[in-house]
Design goal:
The protein is an alpha/beta fold. Helix content is about 45%, strand content about 25%. It is built from 5 helices and 7 strands, in the order βββαβαβαααββ. Strand 4, helix 2 and strand 5 form a beta-alpha-beta unit. The chain is globular. The two termini are about 20 Å apart.
Length: about 190
């Protein structure tokens, strides 16, 4: 499979982390990472700032696909609403550029990067540093953005392998017994 450039976004109404990687679904290479410090006095200005900055990142790094962390509802519903709006601004920036966007739960992202869905921020930072052979520990939001991109790359690799598999999504007889191959389907 050819290399694809992936932008991973960890949306936030105060800080939005991002990571850019190149991946063929098996090998992953760090390109860039950082955090957008959201500017603006009111929510509309902040959302406009996120949209503008993500659009600039897309113009600069030319990703072919985008991964975004899904909203999780915590104890504070207002925080979840603001996070959802920040996600919407980031997704709109990708969609207006015609890029496909995939969404992943925080648990799935952590599982993909660290191997444990309950990993904390420090574990994520250390693992991302190690996986991409970074000289310094990336800031937490940037590490999360890289983890989203990595999760998308791993998902992309599975989809490609499954698309190429002749029995994907079918039932197969093996050694006289039936085995359901639905697990091959990623959808």
């Amino acid at each position: 499979m050819p290399m694809k450039r992936i932008l991973g976004i960890d949306p936030g109404s105060v800080v939005t982390g991002y990571g850019v990687i190149d991946s063929d679904g098996v090998r992953d290479f760090h390109v860039s990472h950082g955090a957008i410090r959201v500017a603006g006095d009111d929510l509309a200005e902040k959302l406009g700032h996120i949209l503008y900055k993500i659009d600039q990142l897309i113009a600069e790094w030319q990703p072919q696909e985008v991964g975004v962390e899904q909203v999780f509802v915590s104890k504070n519903p207002m925080s979840a609403l603001k996070l959802g709006q920040a996600r919407g601004a980031a997704i709109c920036a990708a969609v207006q550029r015609g890029l496909p966007v995939a969404e992943y739960s925080a648990r799935t992202i952590k599982q993909s990067a660290v191997g444990y869905g309950g990993a904390d921020k420090a574990q994520m930072q250390e693992m991302i540093k190690m996986l991409f052979s970074l000289k310094e520990l990336p800031p937490a939001d940037a590490a999360d953005g890289l983890a989203v991109a990595l999760c998308h790359a791993h998902s992309m690799g599975r989809r490609t392998l499954l698309d190429d598999h002749p029995t994907a999504g079918t039932q197969v007889k093996s050694a006289g017994r039936r085995r359901n191959k639905r697990w091959l389907s990623v959808k």
